[in-house]
Design a protein that fits this description.
This protein has 185 residues and is mainly α. The chain is 52% helix and 4% strand. A hairpin with a 5-residue loop joins strand 1 and strand 2. The chain is extended and about 70 Å long.
């Protein structure tokens, strides 16, 4: 049975007075519920499955408020260092000893690449501030990011500067020096 163009564009009205959405619009359906393997699923099983996958928000939920869960201070610092290494020194140029990262690669995309990498670098500074870094440390970190972002906008020469300057690794050294001076709790 083929459908005419009129049936596709304007669906037929139900023949009986069962309502505007047809005979299957109610909460009770006709026939069993079948899974993709052809087995029947009992309605009680569906309700149980929906309860298992429910997401609750609140203070008792360990994943509420942070997409990474509750990380310790050391885990947050390790995450920042891993991101800084990925941005600045993740790869080695074959045949040389020159290290570069995603910052140098994404920076090859004019303007947009430098905006993206600068945004990630600013996020690293924000995380350092959240860890308690004082204003003078974050000011130096922001200066490194600004210099890297502005010079990085220059085509090719800016990308070479990104590879050699490594603003994120400099920022992590600043943060690590400050953290090492703090008393252990």
């Amino acid at each position: 049975m083929t459908m005419s163009d009129d049936d596709i564009l304007a669906p037929r009205r139900p023949r009986s007075g069962s309502g505007p959405r047809g005979p299957f619009s109610g909460s009770e359906g006709r026939g069993p519920i079948i899974d993709q393997d052809g087995r029947e699923i009992r309605p009680e099983t569906l309700e149980q499955g929906f309860r298992e996958f429910r997401v609750e928000f609140g203070k008792d939920n360990p994943f509420s408020g942070s997409p990474f869960g509750n990380l310790t201070r050391e885990q947050r610092i390790a995450r920042l260092e891993a991101i800084a290494k990925l941005l600045d020194i993740a790869f080695i140029l074959p045949g040389t000893n020159i290290r570069y990262g995603i910052d140098g690669l994404i920076g090859l995309i004019p303007v947009v690449g430098d905006i993206i990498t600068t945004a990630v670098s600013l996020w690293l500074v924000r995380e350092a501030r959240a860890l308690g870094a004082p204003w003078h440390v974050t000011a130096r970190m922001l200066g490194n990011v600004a210099l890297d972002g502005v010079v990085g906008l220059v085509p090719f020469a800016g990308d070479a500067f990104d590879v050699m300057f490594r603003a994120n690794m400099r920022n992590m050294r600043l943060l690590r020096r400050w953290l090492d001076k703090q008393p252990r709790m």
